[in-house]
Amino acid sequence: MDKELNSHITREFWEKANEIHIGKIISEFAHESIIKPSLQETRNGWGIYKLITPGDSSIIYHFEARVLKLNHWLLKKGSVKKMVNGKSHLPESIHFILEFQQNLEIPETLLPGYLEEITATLYGSMFILKHNQIPVNKLVNADYQTIEHAMFNGHPIFVANNGRVGFDAEDYRKYAPEANQSIQLVWLAGHKSRASFNAVEELPYENLMKQELGEAIIQQFNRQLAEKGLNPDEYVFIPVHPWQWDNKLAILFAPDIVANQLVLMGSGPDIYLVQQSLRTLFNISNPEKFYTKTALSILNMGFLRGMSPYFMDTTPAITTWIKSTIGKDPYIKSLGFTMLCEVATVGYRNFTFEKFGQTSSYNKMLAALWRESPASITKKGQQLMTMAALIHIDHENQALLPEIIKNSGFTISDWLRKYLRCYLAPLLHAFYEHDLSFIPHGENVILVLENHIPVKIIMKDITEEINVLNPEVKLPEKAQRIYLEIPDDIRMLNILIDVFDGFFRFVTAILEEYCQFTDEEFWRLVAECIHDYQQENTHLERKFKRFDLFVKEYDQSCLNRLQLRNHRQMFNSADPVSSFQLVGRHQNPIYKYRHPKKHNIESAITTA
Fold first, then answer.
1. Is 446 helix (H, G, I), strand (E, B) or coil?
2. Which residues are registered as beta bridge partners of 352?
3. Which residues form the Aerobactin siderophore biosynthesis IucA/IucC-like C-terminal domain (predicted)?
4. Are strands 338-339 and 453-459 parallel, antiparallel or unpaired?
5. What phi, psi does 299 have (nearest 5°)?
6. Mean of the pLDDT values across residues 71-93?
7. How far apart are CA 535 and CA 243, in angstroms?
8. Separation of alpha carbons 107 and 104, rounded Å
9. Alpha carbon 150 to chain centroid, angstroms
10. What are the start-end ranges of the E strands in 287-390?
């Protein structure tokens, strides 16, 4: 037994991890009106709140908070206190979940599994607190992969966001992004009767394999097949995550292995680092080579992270269509907006499980795709960082965003204008001009900075997380799966929820707490960016009125409620709209800036 493996499990780190996590639980559950703290008084700009557990008035939580726009609860760090019969107790997340189970409405059969994800999330937090102690004044100048592996909170909404159910302690140390350990891919050969390769037209199979494996390894693999009496021309090489091979494929695919439908080749030559998204791998042997994304049957944040071989068949066709649509748009190009295209895929069908349907997790165990690397499309002197870095807070409770702005030499307002131009403007154009929606959360977006100033964004994970919202858009047959039938009022939530609620409200909290820059001022800049976009694209005026981002209020989509209802599968990917948990209404923070003239007057007064 390796004692060092779990050396981060200490009282000190447990208390710190719970302190951070309890604050997040209260903030997000109050945001979604799952719990309703009561205001007792206001002191020095902070509200003093009380929260009594349902069914047991002897357990009371006290904390200090400010409620920002979009009902975002900014809790004062270290302010959460738990009293039981008047005596102080350590606030712990798993106890909080049990105490408020009545509010959370978690099905009894799913509660243990949800608690497992909460505990695993805390386990990861303790690891980060011990091992990833890079202060923000160092991180601000770090390279892409150093920043990627220092992140604490890539998905800020979800309370159970780093469960990774399926990893044991040793797996965690090998394969979790924050462990920052390099790995090699396992390569298999799949018979073409079950395995299929697809790619964009300009990337034939032979060219891809020469790039990813090299001639020597290809010849070695072909010899291995020939020595078994097999014809190499009848096989396709498939990259596999080592955890997936050891824990799933070697066991469940044993019949295929015995029949030589699937043949183990061995490790590939290159070294990779795991990304925040867990199943995506960055090639550090040659950073300009493709990302490799592999199926990984780990339960994390509402889904088993497999990959469908059926979806892989259509991915290159979707990539080709997106490149011809968005990639060639002059306005998009003027903003520098870039997509990392998913250029090739491979999938393997297991006939034993296929009868249980394409959506079964057992039919998503063996597939992979290759995605362009950001290193191949950036210039010398440009810094890459995951957009999640903008809401990163280090182990000393210092935020990275203020450090980035300080190093840029820009004022906060001017830096944010640059950022909004890079990030929000292209999303608006995709929505209004092309009827397209991305899922542009912090882990899906890479920021490109020059001298700490945003110059563009790079969007990744495009084929699995893009939707066409207009039935009149002509899609090739193989791209039909990205069309999503959705009513107008829900369609607007792509910006109002995914961007405003899903990311901007966390940015405003950082600015409020660390920069004394009010959320009112931030939302004025958001409105300014939208008006600037509309004035540059007057031909879309009818759509601006039809899909009005300046509505007074809009439905609140509650992601934690989704996860609480079923932490194993949050929604039906074939019909995600039917799964939405729309509870309550948000007051739109940009409503007061809906008139461009008023917006311009207020802008002039503010900057005078």
1. strand
2. none
3. 413-570
4. parallel
5. -80, 120
6. 97
7. 51
8. 9
9. 15
10. 291-294, 299-300, 303-304, 338-339, 342-348, 367-371, 382-386
Strand-strand pairing, 272-274 and 182-183? antiparallel
Q: Are 199 and 343 in contact (CB under 8 A)?
A: yes
Q: What is the pLDDT of residue 597?
A: 67
Which CA distances in Å does 580 have to 24, 120, 437, 557? 22, 26, 16, 7
Query: pLDDT tens for residues 305-362?
Result: 999 999 899 999 999 999 998 989 999 999 999 999 999 999 999 999 998 988 889 9
- CA 534 to CA 548: how far, in whole Å? 11
CB 53 within 8 A of CB 62: no
**What are the CA-CA distances from residue 581 to residues 105, 281, 551, 576, 589 (Å)?**
13, 32, 20, 11, 21
For the chain, give the percent of residues with pLDDT over 90.
83
pTM of the model: 0.94
Tokens of 523: 């939302």
The reported pLDDT for the residue numbered 580 is 83
d(CA 599, CA 414): 17
b/e per residue, 148-163, with b = 16+ CB within 10 A? bbbbbbbbbbbbbbbb
Mean pLDDT of the chain: 93
Report the alpha-carbon distance of residue 530 to residue 523 in Å, rounded: 11
CA 65 – CA 77 distance, rounded (Å): 9
Secondary structure (H, E, C), 489-516: HHHCHHHHHHHHHHHHHHHHHHHHHHHC
Q: How far apart are the first and last CA of the chain?
A: 66
User: pLDDT by residue (tens digit) across 205-264?
Assistant: 999 999 999 999 999 999 999 999 999 999 999 999 999 999 999 999 999 999 999 999
The full set of domains in the chain, from first to last, is: 3-139 (3.30.310.280), 169-333+340-375 (no CATH), 382-607 (1.10.510.40)
Span 535-562, average pLDDT: 96
pLDDT tens digits, one per residue of 114-141 = 999 999 999 999 999 999 889 999 999 9
Q: What is the pLDDT of residues 196-222, one digit of tens each?
A: 999 999 999 999 999 999 999 999 999
Host H or E run for residue 79: none
Please, which residues have CB within 8 angstroms of residue 577's CB and are 6 or more apart in sequence? 484, 485, 486, 490
- Among candidate residues 384, 394, 386, the one with its CA nearest the CA of residue 514: 394
Angle at which helices 505-515 and 400-408 cross, to 10°: 70
* Pair 501, 492: CB distance under 8 Å: no
* The one-letter amino acid at 526: V
**Amino acid, single-letter form, for residue 213:** L
The answer, yes or no, to whether residue 604 has pLDDT greater than 50, is no
Instruction: For residues 452 and 140, give the distance between their C-alpha atoms in angstroms, rounded to a whole number.
Output: 8
- CB atoms inside a 10 Å sphere around CB 451: 12
Query: What tokens appear for 573 in the block?
Result: 């990917």
Measured at the alpha carbon of residue 282, what is the angle toward residues 280 and 287, in degrees to the nearest 5? Answer: 155
Q: For the purposes of burial, counting CB atoms within 10 Å of the CB of 105, is it exposed (0-12), middle (13-18) or buried (19 or more)?
A: exposed
